[in-house]
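User: For documentation purposes, I need each entry recorded in a consistent format: the amino acid sequence on its own, followed directly by the corresponding structure tokens. There are two entries in this batch. Please keep commentary to a minimum and don't merge the entries.

Assistant: Recorded as requested. Entry 1:
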Amino acid sequence: MFDRVTPQNDWPAMERRILAWWKETDAFGKLARQNAGAEPWSFQDGPITANNPMGVHHAWGRSFKDVWSRFFSMQGRDLRWQNGFDCQGLWVEVEVEKSLGFKSKRDIEAYGIDAFVRRCKERVLRYAAVQTEQSIRLGMWMHWDDPADLRFLADHIDEAEALTVDTPAGPVTATVEQLVGQLGKWPWNKSYFTFADTNNYLIWRFLKECHRRGWVYRGRDVMPWCARCGTGLSQHEIATEGYQDLTHKSPTVRFPLVDRPGESLLVWTTTPWTLSANVSAAVGPELTYLKVRQGTTSCTWPRARPRRP
């Protein structure tokens, strides 16, 4: 006899029960320790901006990433298990400007650029905590920072005096600015943040080397400019300067017609890797097709290629 299966399942309760069981048994920790030192498989998360709670599209992408990481961990590979947060850029600045009621960049100057930067870091830390909690609820396995630690740093971001803070590496005495700059490295060793000192110093080092080699110069570039944000429109920059027209070979495949011996459809494709799984060919009832003969074989293809929806 089997137990009765109720059709009225409480899926959120089931999720929380599984998450609690994982935590109780240290399932992720055991897997990470078991594979430590084995053949590595490098997977570094392309970070989403910690500017608001995750959207459905973020959760979808993170689910795929988690499945991919778990697949290789099940093969015994050693992963870094490191999540990332994008912390910089116009998105964060605009949201902070909204929260402060700013109308122009002059408001930032009057407020103080250093204070405004701290507000941006504060926002990132708070929403990194939110996104961490959401990712854990999603079931994503990573070496996560404690959301309480991120909120603590956000709460004390304006304090200039050194504090003694309990970290995963033990008590550390430093200013909050210094502790925030070390996220992703010792003493945290968890999620990486793009505003961390290592990332910023590497960017300046790269620019310094470009300058040393004479690759940095002053010039002019005509492009649309956003007067509100005080920056060029990057979408235009990519569309006009980042793309090139290239010619590539593409296959045209012959699909024999079952009920017409010696006749085939000619199908042109830019995605030949899907051919092994194709089970049908779409034919447009309102399109004009041409029928040609080559030797003893007849082939048919559309005169004009239809637009893709």
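Entry 2:
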Amino acid sequence: MADLLEIAEQMWAGEGSSEVGGHHPVGHDLGLAEVAPRTAFNATFGNISAFATDEGLLLVDTGNQIVAASNHARIREWNRDRLGTVVYTHGHIDHVFGMAPFDEEAVTNGWAPPKVVAHELVSARFERYVITAGYNGIINQRQFQLPQFQWPTQYRQPDEVYRDHHTLEVGGERWELHHDKGETDDATWVFNPGRKVLCTGDLFIWASPNCGNPQKVQRYPREWAVALRKMAALGAEILLPGHGLPILGNDRINQALSDTAELLESLVDQTLVLMNEGARLDDIVQAVQPPPHLLDKPYLRPVYDEPEFVVRNLWRLYGGWYDGNPARLKPPADLAIATEMAALAGGASRLAERASELAAAGDLRLAGHLAELAAQAAPEDVGVHRVRADVFGLRAAEERSTMSKGVFSWIERESRAKAEG
């Protein structure tokens, strides 16, 4: 397995982007490596930072349930000490579902169970996950292309919670826990001033911030930028992110965090100016542009979420769901619109034909809109679904982000199945 720090160097130099077959920050599994004395980093889907202390192991995050056993084995190959303390950086399931092997191990060995520490809102997140398990299962099937995925309904709860700031003394060392809103409302970032190690959770993920995900709950771009500025001022020498690879050296850490903050601040400022002028959402989405020099950074490429989605998320946060278009305040059903448009065009097949023409001309956004109308107007038409599949297949191939690729690929497969019977 390639050395994590060598890969991190390649990524920093822009030589390992997911778009050229490199390491996607949210999808890689590169194993565990010691990045500093008594400090290990397991780079997988939901990274784990592991610290050997004089009072046993301390983990920041625990990974996801699918690879919990292999993650446990990797950590145990590196260190056999009792796991004493775990910090959840937030309640997403790719960060909190690696506890089972450690809890079972404690019972087997007669050890005291590990103490899990988290922000007080983590338990509320788990409660929400239980009552929306069906919905979360569906959207994650779509986002990550996992048709059989089932959302969990049982969670390892924290043993200790805090509100704003909290300090853990473990093995004679100080672990500072800080709460800031960002991708989630329950986020924690961790700093050990003695080791100068910063664990960011998902506040930094080696990609444009996951702050607009169209299928997930509210995110907080302005507060996220504030948190990044706080972390950049700490003087950390090692950054261990929730996704992606380690960053070593204060200059690089400061640059990565500050650039990410600047990107979010720009999107927030541009959006709020236009909202305060009374612009509609559609006008704002078309007008707001992220600074190109930032999206060119190897750690800010929009390969997971997209700035366009962050703008929509800001509107939802500050403006509600009405987008300023009165036709959409109390609109007709989608089926009624599709039926009327098909009738005006001369049939659903004509809409689909025009969608194909637009796609061939490179206007995939409008092509997708017409293809969807055609499929709604004629849901059993094989020819319409063939066009819909082709159009959204082209859209998926053109996109960079996991979010867009996931939705468009799902639609392509849906129509391809209907077209093929």
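Summary note for entry 2:
The chain has two domains: 4-263, 332-419.
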